[in-house]
Amino acid sequence: MMKTEPARAAPALPTDLQSPRAKLVYLYLTTNGDATVSEMGDSLGMKKLSLYSILKTLRQEGMVDCEGDTYALN
């Protein structure tokens, strides 16, 4: 008989996140911990300029923090 793993719940998204790309960045940080803009850009296929704009908004909302060039969820 095979052992089944309990289903993992999907990470909860803040209800005030409206932008699909902001949700994508938030989920990326949820699953990967911290990351640089370059790492996110490579993994998500997004331009750095777009990521900086999204991360700025997430920081203003208090959802993300930055230390050096690394971003992480609060």
TrEMBL record:
<dbReference type="InterPro" id="IPR036388">
    <property type="entry name" value="WH-like_DNA-bd_sf"/>
</dbReference>
<feature type="domain" description="Transcription regulator TrmB N-terminal">
    <location>
        <begin position="25"/>
        <end position="70"/>
    </location>
</feature>
<dbReference type="InterPro" id="IPR036390">
    <property type="entry name" value="WH_DNA-bd_sf"/>
</dbReference>
<protein>
    <submittedName>
        <fullName>Helix-turn-helix domain-containing protein</fullName>
    </submittedName>
</protein>
<dbReference type="InterPro" id="IPR002831">
    <property type="entry name" value="Tscrpt_reg_TrmB_N"/>
</dbReference>
<dbReference type="Pfam" id="PF01978">
    <property type="entry name" value="TrmB"/>
</dbReference>
